[in-house]
Amino acid sequence: MGQALTEPSSKTKPVYGRVLLKLSGEALMGDLEYGTDPGRVHEIAAEVTAVHRTGVQVAVVVGGGNIYRGLAAAAKGMDRATGDYMGMLATVLNALALQDALEKLDVATRVQSAITISEVAEPYIRRRAIRHLEKGRIVIFAGGTGNPFFTTDTAAALRAAELHAEVVLMAKNGVEGVYSADPAREQGAEFIPEITHREALTRGLEVMDATAFALCMDNDLPIIVFNMTGGRNIGKIVSGERVGTLVRT
pLDDT tens-digit profile of 193-209? Predict the structure, then answer.
């Protein structure tokens, strides 16, 4: 397991009061082909905990790609809505794993699901989620938006707007931010430190899916796309350091 991260210096006042962190399912996968790596989950929980203890209110939206990837063959040819509901269930598994890791670090955590699974998660209720944040609890949102045909990116943008989050933190695996092209395919792809929503949309840059991106643009929600690998970047961001790519209106 990774070492628990030290908290950012108390002398550094956070520049954000409430953030929404979008974690892809792949972020929980580590070096596995699919599934959840307990060590990686612990590392992420430790980093989120360190930020939370500076006084920042943290909400998290988790994806399900790490689990759904293992089901891809079974889902092939399946009705799109059915496949999407399977993906929503995968996000619940990830949310519970992250909640367990956070609570082992003595952080009060609540899971709220957009699909009803009352035995393991609260239903998503906006005012209750805000109250949890105000009481110093981390809230993890599972189940996407609760509707097929919408991604967890859209869920992240929607929850951020509903909760009046100040920024959406888009965690990526091994990618430092937004590039002019896919850096894995084009060697000369240029890193973009800052860009507007509209320019990113016009240039077709893959920051998040189009629906989610439009939601952020319409609600003047800044997005910071950063590399989750290596740790500490969330702490740097909330302390005001420039990390990754800033997308704003």
Answer: 999 998 988 888 878 88
